[in-house]
Design a protein that fits this description.
41% of the residues lie in helices and 13% in strands. The protein is of the alpha/beta class and 133 residues long. It has two domains: 40 residues; 62 residues. It has a three-stranded parallel β-sheet, with helices on both faces. The protein is elongated and about 80 Å long.
């Protein structure tokens, strides 16, 4: 019984709002404050169409980290350098035979640093990149 009463109350409120809204709209149209209903506008989505996703395979794992060089690359996001430096401390304690190199990208987040990528390809065996949220 209580549920039916609640549903009936909600329906009455919704109908009352619809009636009052349509009345307000007619009054506003009569006063020239609202465009006539015949006018239509076109709305475009600002999100656009994303490009198709290209799937890539993951990089193969290293068989061992001993004697390997791992680059820790900071893209410049707030706090990522702190995380990478803590990871380097862990590597120095737990993997002392692994060479670690910390690099900060020369440009801002999202940009490409061709010289850094060339250095990593030439001298590095793996890379860990600190990205933002």
């Amino acid at each position: 019984m209580k549920q039916r009463m609640a549903v009936a109350t909600v329906l009455v409120l919704v109908l009352g709002l619809c009636v009052s809204f349509s009345t307000l709209k007619r009054v506003a149209q009569a006063q020239g404050k609202v465009a006539p209903a015949e006018q239509k506008i076109t709305v475009l989505s600002p999100m656009g169409t994303p490009p198709p996703i290209k799937l890539r395979t993951m990089a193969p794992r290293l068989d061992t980290m001993e004697g390997k060089t791992i680059y820790f690359v900071d893209q410049g996001y707030l706090g990522s350098d702190n995380l990478l430096k803590e990871m380097i401390v862990w590597f120095e304690k737990n993997r002392p035979k692994t060479n670690v190199v910390f690099k900060r990208m020369s440009r801002g987040p999202g940009s490409q640093d061709a010289a850094l990528w060339a250095e990593i390809k030439e001298k590095g065996d793996a890379m860990i990149m600190g990205v933002g949220h």
